[in-house]
## 1
Amino acid sequence: MLDYAMQRRIELFLLEEARLLDAGQFEDWLKLYEPQGIYWMPSQPGQTDPLNVASIMYEDHAILSMRVQRLLEARALVLTPMPRTTHLVSNIEAKEAEDGEFTADAAFICVEHQADRQRIYSGRHAYQLTPHDDSFRIKLKRVALMNCDGVHSPMAIPL
Amino acid sequence: MEQSATLPTPDDIKSLVRPDHVHRRAYADPAVFALEQERIFSKLWIYVAHDSQLKKPGDFIRTRLASYEVLVTRHSDGEIYVLQNRCPHRGARICMVDRGSSKIFSCPYHAWAFRPDGSLASVPHRKSYPENFSFDDPSNHMQRVGKVALYRGFVFATLNENPEPLLEHLGPMTEVIDNLVDRAPDGEVEIAESSFTLEYRGNWKLHLENAADIFHPSFVHSSSVAPARRAPTNASILDQDQTRLMLAANGLGYEEWEGIQLNGYAGGHVYMNNIYNAGVMVSQKADPVAERYRAALTARHGAEKTAQVLGMNRFNNIIYPNLIINAQYQQMRVTIPLSVDRTMVRIHCFKLKGAPDEMFHRAVRFLSTLGSPASMIFSDDVEMLERCQQGLARDVGPWIDFSRGVGQESRGAEGQLSGAASEMPMRVQFQAWVNYLTAEAA
């Protein structure tokens, strides 16, 4: 079991990520990722293969950068008006992994409000975190959306 | 189908379509939608499945045909059947998943059990049923729906008792199915296990029109084109720059449009060619994957045929009314109307048997980039389709304009040809639409 201080530092890091997304600070959000970091949102429950099974998102820093730039483009249709979100991250279980790295699992709910509708996303996050200065960088974030294999409307904001 | 509203008359339908304008009711009137379900989605050949999804007896997929939820099944006789997903006993929906394999479809209510051809296999407590209760009576079977026909693995079905032959309906569009299958070195394609299902709040025709419209991308997709143009090349560790190239490819300008030709056929089928001359799937210089693939294809077809197969450069081949194929990208979309203002889109990709695994990984990435719910491209299309529906739902200025390029199209052997800026494809689709909706019931 992690000592309380480390557990708390990891919790605060996950909360910082949620806050940056809610604040629309997407460039700062991207800085939380390692240069080789990956954001993965599978399309199947329990999906282990991102190459032979399509993903809702399977993107590294280079592709996420384009996504973030798009979020900042004034003409992104799906983002007008800009959605407002509340990300809740909870049930955080952090563990020490090999080579001084950490893993963290959490449950999340994201409520997204845009124009005349409100959507709710929920599921579980699984992180691989690398220590960086006095904080962390994300090596992998796997977003297991509860209804990943369901029928979807377009998703505008990272979860 | 449940029907209370009076269906529009042929004269009413004809009054909605002018040579260069269409009345908003074509998109927003539930009675028009009901007639479409009866005259288009019940009468034409509708794509329902691919036989690679039905490899062995018992394999099934769940989809829709007209207003019905159906199971497309493979029976032990090897035949493919389309069955109403409904127990004849009390009417309960039987199957609640989109695909699977089962030798028996069992109704959970009173456990009537059916074979994959719909026939009744067993009922519990047989002896309490009347003497004349017959297992052979079709009214005790899961109801078989219409007719089924295949073209090179693509399964089409129709409720029409007397349909025109499938090949006649497909017409010149068989070429794109041929081209997709011929791209497989082993001569077979297989639908990938994963697919996406999206729903938008708009009429089904908007999706087909958008796919036939090369005019919109540089406007609608500018928010992903601009970042892709600014991004460094070959920066991703996950792909060979395909995502960036795909995003950037929507930035076609007036000059690139010049080489694009739109093709429209009498049945409402439409495609465009010369869109990506290189093709983002295999566009890299010194691309070892593409080289291995080309070698495998050449081994099967010979150099000349290989050049011909890979040379076919057609985009968004629309097989009216519900299928869009991009052979070059091993991808396909199925448009499923739910109501006058709600549409489901299923997006699949294909594995080319005998091609390098990496070719398939590229197709999977293409599926994600272009068809995922979080797609940086399709999401903006959907936003536009929904905004169109919101405007068309209001009776303000009832006529919408399809006049761009009217009178400038030329006649080809089997249809019309135009430049990229023309709205000819939509005019062709609406001519077909009027013909289908006003045809005498078969």
Note: The first strand of chain B starts at residue 21 and ends at 23.
## 2
Amino acid sequence: MKELRLMKGNEAIAEAAIRAGADAYFGYPITPQSEILEYLVEQNPEETTGMVILQAESEVAAINMVYGAASTGKRIMTSSSSPGISLMTEGISYLAGAELPCLIVNVARGGPGLGTIQPSQADYFQSTKGGGHGDYRMLVLAPFSVQEMADFVSLGFELAFKYRNPVLILSDGVIGQMMEKVELPEFQPRKTDYEPWGTTGKTPDRERNIITSLNLDALEHEQHNFKLQAKYKQMEEEDTRCETSFCEDAEYLIIAYGASARISRKAVELARAKGIKAGLFRPITLFPFPSKELNEAARNAKGLLSVEMSAGQMIEDVKLATGCRIPVQHFGRYGGVVHAPGEILEALEKLKDNK
Amino acid sequence: MEVKDIVNEKNLVYKPSELLTGATFNFCPGCGHGTVVRMIMEIVEEMGIQGDTIGISPVGCSVLLYDFYNIDVIQAAHGRATAVATGVKRVLPEKFVFTYQGDGDLAAIGTGETIHTCNRGENIAIIYINNGTYGMTGGQMAPTTIPGMKTSTSPLGRNVETMGYPLRITDLVAGLEGTYYVTRQSVHTAAAVRKTKRAIRTAFENQKLNKGTSFVEVVSSCNSGWKMTPLQANQWMEENMFPYYPLGDLKANGELIKK
Ligand SMILES: Cc1ncc(C[n+]2csc(CCOP(=O)(O)OP(=O)(O)O)c2C)c(N)n1
């Protein structure tokens, strides 16, 4: 049964994981996402759905537990925040190399280094361009509401299995910590079917299953890389997501995701009230970046404003997507500071007046 | 008498396990890895648990373990094998899960994972080859390299004052409440091989008891890394490694063995 509740974004993710029929969660505490582990342990789904919850000794161990459990073809998840995700990148590269599905949640905070515990979007490069070593990508979903925190869990698992690839939910401290009403999905049964590639024990009816990211033959390994790249291309073609508001006649377009998109929406409303034809383009998948859709939304645009809680990372994708055909500016707050709608409006007005 | 009168099924005293794929081992002649690697499949075959066993291979000389084994194998990142094993065992608690790791893997980069996995008492078997060196990458110093021992990164011999002391990680994990069975063996003689096989079999059997972690260290020579003939290496190991790493059980049935 669907259920309406008032929840924190972090709790919504945790509850949605239980409801999505996840098999296991391995994690390690870090602010601002510790509620995910806390909520899961408190709910004790091992009793109800059989979902395993384990607090690892480090993020390095947690992601490698994910690697082992995901090798069996089950629905496995972890979560962390920026410094913890950095520790996980070794494992993420291995997961991508070995083509293992799993769900990773980053409720990002300000960096670099230990940084702050306040929200940030400065992990965009790390999330969308690799992070770990080698040519790999993760499909990155960016929720902008508690509702999407919940919705993206089952969607994330679905996409992870579709592509046999890690999927990242890139959230931030605002969305993780704020409370909102959320319609929780119905309970899904845990997966009972086996993946043909899973290491569940070799039965007489099949060949042994090997999970590895190693291939000592460079030519063979190139083939493997071709296959991975084709997969990322397919993601681009089939699973790019975005949302537009007020874009139809927009002359000035804000491009923003996550918490920035919520605040930017308010700024767009303020701009419209002042007679500025502003619109909001919200990428939901950060990789693949919705380039085609952005070009479509920006067809009448005279200026683009990339609003990010970072020094300007997504702006590179905005420029690439539009081929720098339209002037693009960046407006950002760094290191854990959240922008106010008024200052975004100011930035928008400046962009307009510069023309 | 003709050759076929001697070489035939009837006179066969040893045959590799059916669970070995037949792929040529990549180990150097004289190295202990080959003996332990084949022995594990003999045990899995004897116990009839091919369909219930999942192996975790390390980074190191045995990284290609999956080439040799006709069972499901997961290849782990350097040092992370026991965390990977934890993930598998937690979602498939009824299966037999084992890791196979060298000393660089288990006692250097993977120290944290090793200690915490043992401390949680994960119900798995950890098979640990201690050859006192990093075999695969060309014989560098390992945490287990003994004092004075020459390696490519301690060419003047390990100086404990600057390079620290050898890590007896087996003694360390024996002291943890999570371990149920901890033993140190070798494979340099036929008798030692038989003992090691019994130890590994015990480690597998223990998983049925669900009592905690089984940890089998095998002190082994690395003749190419040590730059000795296999015979010299074995002799050197007996004279120099065994005093530092005395063979025998450290813990059985959850109880420390008093020496
Ligand atoms: C993260 C990482 N660091 C370093 C290496 C290089 N490396 C490969 S094998 C190895 C040493 C393995 O030594 P050991 O575990 O003692 O096993 P042996 O080869 O002696 O059997 C190292 C350092 C690696 N593969 N990954």
Note: Chain B has eleven helices and ten strands.
## 3
Amino acid sequence: MKSAQEGAAALSHIQPKRGSSLLRNIAKRYDLYLMLLLPIAWYLIFHYGPLYGLQIAFKNFNPAKGIIGSPWEGFGHFERFFNSYYFWRLLWNTVSINLFSLLIAFPVPIMLALLVNEIRSKTFSKWLQNITYIPHFISVVVIVGILNVFLSPTGPINMLIETFGGTSIRFLEVAGWFKTIFISSNIWQNMGWQSIIYIAALSGVNPQLYEAAKMDGASRLRRIWHVSLPGIAPVIVILLILDIGHFMNVGFEKILLMQNNLNLESSDVISTFVYTTGILKGEYSYTAAIGLFNSVINLILLLMVNRFARKTSETSLW
Amino acid sequence: MRRHWGRNALTTMIVSGLILAGCSNDGSSKTENNPSSESAIKAEGFPIVDQPLKLKMFTRIAPVNGPFKDMPVFQDYEKLSNIQVEFTEAPTDGFAEKKNLLFASNELPDALYRSGLSQLETIRYGSAGQLIPLEELIEQYAPNLAILMEQYPEIRSAITTPEGHIYAIPGIVTTGSARTDKRWINKAWLEKLNLEEPKTTEELYQVLLAFRDGDPNGNGKADEVPMTARIGLPIVQFMSGSFGLDLQLGYNINIEDDKVHIWSGDERYKELLMYLNKLYKEKLLDQEIFSHTEAQYLAKQGSGNTGLFFDQTNNNFLPIADQYEGTAPPAGPHGDQMQSPAAPVPRDYGAFAITSVNENPEATMRWIDYFYSDEGSTLLRFGREGEHYELKDGMPYYKEDFLTVTGAQGRMTPYAGGGAPHLISDKVASFINPPQVQEAYAKLEPYMPKIRYAAPMFDEETAQKVNILRNDIDKYIDEQSTKFIVGALSFDKWDAFLATLKKMNIDELEKIYQEAYDKMEK
């Protein structure tokens, strides 16, 4: 810790003096820069390299001619998508599923963390934590299988409804139920896992603050509101921005597994549409354009939220 | 120490770079190892080549099949032809994905076997040069196929592009009975409830009602499934003939007086959906019809607890086969009576294709052509004489002890599982066409369409246009039809359905099919 601080101090001391002599700096600390090579290569190959393939969104991709040899199409694929009957539905489903997830699913782990933090009994809070984060390790396929069994017309939930005199509901075949099921099962699966980081942040809050609040006669809720929450606010904002960063990429596998002709109206999202038209029907150019459109919206949202966060809370990604 | 580390890193990078380069060299030289052995190919007779030849093929492997390399059929044919085929197998689930990625990455095998290529795919990959035109090869190296194409002119028109190329070979079915699913009705239940075989859709409704309420299986519980079918909308095709809706040109099309008409927005179609909605609502139609899997459906056939279902043969319910008999399509409210879901002679379109990386297209063509002869088709479907089958009156029949081993057939031949490129004639159809199935077909035959037009071949530009239109339209029709049937959408919304179809340019689609039909008829 100390040496790192010294190093940083030394660095800041050197830099202004030598000006822009980056090369000299590299020569001096070549071992550090060498270690950087691997992550840079990884980004170049797996994150920037594929950008080159993005041009097929503006072309009529023909595998035999390759990416470069394929003829240009311009914005034709985008126009086709915007004029498609499914455009608004796809956009609405993608945005709404994410928006609802964000509104409903995002606060849950925070509340769970606060709860765990407040529980006096160490064993009970550990037990609660374990119980809530274990579902995170169940694979998506199994989760959807569980949903199918539990929500089927002859499943336990419908049996319960019928014993209380209701009529059974085909949950997975009704468009209106899709988002509820999707989001609530997501919450169930992930709240424990996501709360870990908040619990860690909470343990970093200075205990003296709690003591002081207690002295001033703050109730338990007041202490949560005025000490715990501000204490983890930067973590919340950062995680919120990160979440927004993949706002449009909803859990693709899970939706695809839960999809059927009857709930398509609310389960058809951009990513599943890209898969079914692009990979299964071989329309690479068309779906590359849709994917690009998706990413652009993502980027715009990220920039907006980041700016908003910087202005209001002084915490932001950059 | 530091310096060493740096040097080591550098050497590692260089060495690994060299290894990578070496690998890629290897990859490109692999194909060159196979010198073109054109001169060694024999025009007729076996073996096809004197020097052993290796071919790589991409194929679909169905759930019932074992690995292709262990199939006696291919082992025997390898000895006979001197061509060794190395199969890359992709399971039925996810097959379309793998196939498309193969073309997109341009990492092609020598040929695609049982590939189920669509018309659009063959045109797209054919005109891109990834698949090679086969018409001349067929002329010279595929005598069996050439003869079939002469006998059945519809084959040529179904597989030839407007530019005159053939990029893929279909499976060919000359047995009428193998071209449509039979309607199997529970004879035992009919007798028990003292009912007549239903002749009209209304009678069918009454019979299904009786199946539901009359407890024909005698267990005191209302657990009978009156009617079931494969997952999803095939039920629409099975019933469409009773409402005067044909399935020409591989689509929802009626042809009358040379006029092509897409009927998806017709009043007749609405009637059909309303009828199916009535069946579904009253639990006469399997409530799991939109969610059960193929395996579950087949299990329902074998359970004997279904009243009416659809299948091509009786293989899946052999132990209780006596309980069922074939029935004719019921006459609809306007007196229509037709068996609409009937495949054309060239049935499995795009079953086999040769790619541009193949260095031995002639030998490959000869290899596949054998399966279009009676002899080759017998080998493919029945395996070894004495071991798997025996001849009775010159016709091959599976041996009893071979049939008793569960799953043995699927491990022996790729034809089990469907879509294999070969000839299905009366001579080799004893298994799928036993007397019971023939009787069932005899009841359907009067109602089979006189002419069955296969899906037309469009030129690339038109094919792309059709693709764009149908992408939206088909998805919409499927989705809405499903909802109409289960009652998630009320029939008040029918006009909105029509309006949307109009907006999706269904008229333009109809015009394109009309033009394709006019060209065909010329």
Note: Confidence is low (pLDDT under 50) at residues 1-16 of chain A.
